Amino acid sequence: MKRHARLWWSCFRQAIRRDLQFRSQTIVNAFASIGELVLGLVPVLVLTGTSKATTGWNGPLTLIVVGIYGACTGLMDCFVVPNLRRIDGYVRKGELDLILVRPVNAQLFVTLRWMAPAELGRAVTGLALAAAGAHAAHLKPSPELLLKAGFWTAIGFAGFSLLWSNLVYLAFWIDSAEPINDVALRLRDAGRYPLAYFPRSVQYVLATIVPAGLIAAVPAKVLTGTTTALAAGLALIAAAAVLTILHWQLASRRYSSAS
């Protein structure tokens, strides 16, 4: 693990140097990422205004959800998504050969090798939006609630990253899995809304099979004082991690390589 940690840190420093080579593009990408988060507020606030009486979610509380969602997806788009988008090309073009021969865990390497530091601007903006929403809602969560909400955000981050990984592993089974990345993005978009906006059956799906609801909606509920069983989330992630490892081992056996 120490060797893999040093490798990841080297890749992160290389990503920063790569972005500094094209500073204007990096700045534009950072502002575009922040603008995407801010513009994403519009449909959420419109829906909040029309369903406030039935769902119990007002503007400030919804702002917390959008803020946490922006912070978590900013981290995801920085550290995970750039790699998942490349796996289909690795398989189709035979580029996975150069990864399999390295003296590191291949699954971990293809998941964490590439990074986009410019996306971290959205993480900072998201945290600021969440803090503003909490202040407007007159919430003063205790350190314990903040820690628990942080755990749930980490569970949502890990859970959806694992789901996305399993989706792109379909590249080993079909001719091209590139469109699956767009499907995963659309599924993730559901996480910017409180779960109360969805039918009961959809809420269950967004909290288990497609854990987009764990990214922000559940952490926001925790900040309001709603009790949520943390052990269930940890068990879900543990099971998903084991299944993802098994899926990679099974799928990679189908890889025929460039030669």
Describe what this molecule looks like in 3D.
The protein is mostly helical and about 260 residues long. It has one domain. Helix content is about 75%, strand content about 0%. It has 13 helices and no strands. The protein has helices spanning about 1-20, 25-40, 40-55, 60-80, 80-95, 95-100, 105-110, 120-135, 145-170, 180-190, 200-205, 215-225, 230-250. Helix 3 crosses helix 4 and helix 9 runs parallel beside helix 13 (about 230-250). It starts with a helix and ends in a 7-residue tail after the last helix. The mean pLDDT is about 85.
Task: Compile the SSE list and pairings.
Layout: H1 2-21, H2 23-39, H3 41-55, H4 59-79, H5 81-93, H6 97-100, H7 106-112, H8 120-136, H9 143-168, H10 180-189, H11 200-207, H12 217-223, H13 230-252
Helix pairs in contact: 2-8, 3-4, 4-8, 4-9, 5-9, 9-10, 9-12, 9-13
Number of domains: 1
How much of the residues is beta strand, in percent?
under 5%
The pLDDT mean sits at 86
- In helices, the fraction of residues equals over 70%
Alpha-beta content class: mainly alpha
Number of beta strands? 0
What is the number of helical segments per DSSP (H or I, 4+ residues)?
Answer: 13
Distance between termini? 31 Å
Please compute the radius of gyration using only Cα atoms: 19 Å
Tell me the overall shape: globular
Poorly predicted ranges? none
Q: Give the H and E element order.
A: HHHHHHHHHHHHH
Largest sheet: none
